[in-house]
Recover the amino acids of this structure.
């Protein structure tokens, strides 16, 4: 059974990741249940508008279970190859270092603190020492070629900065305790070493170091350069262009048949060109303009029902080989089109949340090629989808009410904001024997996401899956 994880991303977005091994296929469905009180529908927010403005993603190679101690063993031998492969191998090494560091930090933060933090600080010391050891080994393999030295400097600069920032952020999430003052001081000394190293190399100007925004933007650019060889190039194409042209032609032809029939009938009733005939013809053409777009849209929705709206080709950034193909659907649907398990999950809502809703369905089918070889060290691709809720939040009215309370004979007032609960049902591999469904409750206000809670799945499903 696929593990489904939906998390908040920034202030007004949600993020979902899934992985597909080489030669396999995966289907992903998201059913958004939007309260009708928000007035979101195909007329106020079209599918194409939300797809272009609200849905972004990243597809890249993925290696499962990579930790810092295994990283250098796996990639060190590649760093000694020819200059043509050095750029690719260095970027792959850097990307996997970032993945491994994030994995180890996440695991360290999840350690049980029942022993007053001993486990955490032991793990923090180990992973900090491992990360700095790997960086030092990478620096021993610095290239002699002047053309490659600039590339190495960019990667070295970013990894040093990212290591310092990630480890400081990890330490900041744990409270300061006097019994761990020595361990904390040792960790901070390690991070200071990387800061001093970057100063000694003059990687960043004094003006950049003084402005947190400038240094963050520079590092963001260096991160993109590192990810270039790992993240796939995408070619997204809107489907149905020919279908749309044919529907426009058919709609125009049907209307013209009706209009010509009315004109002939009008000429038969009014033998001579009179003011009444001119008014009648003007009225006929006016009716044609009114209903032309409505008829075209109705026919297009009827013909396009159930068909994908976009296709996406994923190519390796270096070899230009086709790695995977995707088909994407995005449609407003009725409750009758919901799968049975999605209906059951939505039916388990509390009575106060069972309000009438508009359903928006996102569907994504990925097929990974068997023929094309992955880059060495990879067996899986990972897709990270980010759904912006900003286009939805703008339909929430601004809060204008107040709540009053009294304390010690003083009256306090608090301004309230209007909030809605969006229910999102995520389905993986729907229709297969190992399908999985999960519901998430997203509390949304106009200013941002208030809370994301994963709803309980029926126990019978867990046993069967």
């Amino acid at each position: 059974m696929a593990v489904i994880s939906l998390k908040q991303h920034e202030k007004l977005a949600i993020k979902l990741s899934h992985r597909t091994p080489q030669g396999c296929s995966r289907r992903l469905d998201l059913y958004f249940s939007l309260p009708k009180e928000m007035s979101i529908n195909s007329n106020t927010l079209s599918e194409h508008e939300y797809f272009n403005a609200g849905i972004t993603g990243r597809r890249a190679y993925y290696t499962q279970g990579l930790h810092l101690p295994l990283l250098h063993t796996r990639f060190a031998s590649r760093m000694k190859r020819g200059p043509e492969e050095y750029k690719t191998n260095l970027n792959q090494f850097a990307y996997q270092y970032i993945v491994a560091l994030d994995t180890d930090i996440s695991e360290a933060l999840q350690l049980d603190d029942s022993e007053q933090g001993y486990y955490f600080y032991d793990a923090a010391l180990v992973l900090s020492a491992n990360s700095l050891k790997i960086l030092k080994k990478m620096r021993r393999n610095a290239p002699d070629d002047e053309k490659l030295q600039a590339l190495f400097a960019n990667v070295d600069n970013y990894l040093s900065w990212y290591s310092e920032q990630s480890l400081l952020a990890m330490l900041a999430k744990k409270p300061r305790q006097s019994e761990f003052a020595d361990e904390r001081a040792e960790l901070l000394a390690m991070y200071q070493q990387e800061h001093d190293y970057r100063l000694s190399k003059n990687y960043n100007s004094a003006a950049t170091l003084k402005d947190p925004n400038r240094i963050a933007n520079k590092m963001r650019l260096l991160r993109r350069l590192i990810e270039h060889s790992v993240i796939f190039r995408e070619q997204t194409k809107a489907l149905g262009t020919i279908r749309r042209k044919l529907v426009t032609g058919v709609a125009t032809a049907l209307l013209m048949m009706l209009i010509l029939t009315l004109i002939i009938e009008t000429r038969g009733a009014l033998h001579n060109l009179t003011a009444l005939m001119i008014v009648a013809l003007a009225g006929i053409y006016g009716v044609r303009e009114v209903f032309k777009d409505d008829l075209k849209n109705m026919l297009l929705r009827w013909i396009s029902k159930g068909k994908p709206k976009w296709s996406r080709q994923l190519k390796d950034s270096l070899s230009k080989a086709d790695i995977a193909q995707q088909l994407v659907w995005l449609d407003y649907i009725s409750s009758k089109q919901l799968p049975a398990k999605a209906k059951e999950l939505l039916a388990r809502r509390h009575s106060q949340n069972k309000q009438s809703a508009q359903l928006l369905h996102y569907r994504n089918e990925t097929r990974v090629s068997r023929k094309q070889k992955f880059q060495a060290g990879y067996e899986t691709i990972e897709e990270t989808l980010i759904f912006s809720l900003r286009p939805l939040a703008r339909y929430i009215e601004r809060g204008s009410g107040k709540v009053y309370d009294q304390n010690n004979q003083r009256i306090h007032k608090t301004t309230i904001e209007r909030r809605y609960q969006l229910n999102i049902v995520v389905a993986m591999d729907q229709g297969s024997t190992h399908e999985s469904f999960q519901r998430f409750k997203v509390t949304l206000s106009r200013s941002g996401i208030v809370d994301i809670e994963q709803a309980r799945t029926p126990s019978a499903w867990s046993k069967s899956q």
In short: The two ends are 6 Å apart (CA to CA). The mean pLDDT is 82.
